[in-house]
Amino acid sequence: MTTQSELAVRGARRSARRARAADVALGIATPIVLLVAWQIAASTHAIDTRIFTPPSDIVRTAGSLATNGTLGADLGITTARLAVGYVIGAVLGVVVGLALGVVRPLRSALSPLFAALYAVPQIALLPLLLVIFGLGETAKIITVAAVTFFVVELNTLGAVRRVPPELLEAGQAYGATRWRRFVHVLVPATAPGIFTGLRVAVALALVVVTATEFVAANSGLGYLVWNSWQLFEPADMYVGLVVIALLGVVATGIVVGVERLVLPWTRRRAR
């Protein structure tokens, strides 16, 4: 019986590995097929190459921008704006979300206000912030921090509200102090919900930082895309879009990696 069980487990693991390999293969093959089709369509003039620049030209342009330092500089600036704004907003969002979840009067006082502010697109605050702080980095970082804050705060608050009361009551029954129940029961129970907010927020933060660079910057990947569009340099524009997409993948991957490090059971569940 034990041997049959072990064989069944091994077979299930092999099937899971094959399924993951197939998923990875499909994920890699799909963009390659699309790029090949794009290149063929451009080479045969089936599409307007003035708008849909061939992938081969985009690669050459990326090499040129990387060589002259433009691409690296813009990538570094956007990454810095994203990282600073995201970290500030995430930390504040977790702290405030936990506080609102634990302290009922505070939740009653602030939750309606935060819900109303969340309904306002944070990018709409940029003109006001530019008037207050000028065209420097402060307005851009605050805008990124704002969108991150609201997403993380709402997810954190929701995670706290979903914690079963029985968990906290069990900790109390074992004589745990309020602080120990908070640290050892509430925070671990809410951590998956918090990381859900962090994953969503990093993508929205990238969207917002790119949008701010469209209209209020003379550097960064968003500026590269916008300026290339104005000058009708589609190859440069596509390079900027591709790098923004790659930055989003890397940023999300970092958040997921931290989640799997902090919450190892999520890694086992994903297998």
TrEMBL record:
It is found in: Cell membrane. The chain crosses the membrane at residues 21-41, 83-103, 115-135, 200-226, 238-263. The keyword Membrane applies. Its main location: membrane. One of its GO terms (cellular component) is plasma membrane. GO terms for biological process: transmembrane transport. Residues 75-256 form the ABC transmembrane type-1 domain. CDD domains: TM_PBP2. It is a multi-pass membrane protein. It holds the Pfam family BPD_transp_1. InterPro entries: MetI-like (IPR000515), MetI-like_sf (IPR035906). Keywords: Cell membrane, Membrane, Transmembrane, Transmembrane helix, Transport. PANTHER family: ABC TRANSPORTER PERMEASE PROTEIN MJ0413-RELATED (PTHR30151:SF0), ALKANE SULFONATE ABC TRANSPORTER-RELATED, MEMBRANE SUBUNIT (PTHR30151). Belongs to the binding-protein-dependent transport system permease family. This is Binding-protein-dependent transport systems inner membrane component.
